[in-house]
Design a protein that fits this description.
single chain; 3-stranded antiparallel beta sheet; 38% strand; mainly beta
């Protein structure tokens, strides 16, 4: 008799901070191998404090889908950071593989939070030097 796959509910107090990080932000793993969950994708939370910005980075071969849970943000991307878009609560964001980008929180009052899903089970974060867009 085949066994049924297990459904996992991961409470906030189990989120794992020991995941790849970028300056200016916090990533919290919720679904992934570090929590004992075998999956072909990764899921977690991403947060940037008021007035902060992340360092320039990309996610290698991973594609990223994010849902803006709270706050609003600016995302810059491109070979020189020449493109930008704003996202607010309820918006989805798609970040293609290998695209250098940064997230900026223009609010002075509240952090922005995203629910993030990545296309591989272990997050890839390639942090680039601040001079990358110079």
């Amino acid at each position: 008799m085949p066994t049924q796959p297990m459904i996992h509910v991961v409470t906030r107090n189990r989120f794992d901070l020991a995941t790849a990080q970028t300056s200016g932000a916090q990533r919290y793993a919720a679904i992934g191998p570090s929590l004992g969950i075998a999956s072909s994708i990764w899921g977690g939370l991403f947060e940037v404090e008021p007035g902060a910005r992340t360092g320039i980075h990309h996610h290698g071969e991973q594609e990223t889908i994010a849902f803006v849970l709270s706050g609003w943000c600016e995302v810059r991307w491109g070979d020189k950071g020449e493109f930008s878009a704003h996202a607010k609560v309820g918006d989805f964001i798609h970040i293609p593989a290998f695209v250098p980008h940064m997230e900026i929180n223009p609010s002075r009052l509240e952090p922005f939070r995203w629910v993030v899903v990545r296309s591989t089970p272990i997050p890839i974060v390639v942090n680039l030097p601040d001079t990358f867009w110079s």
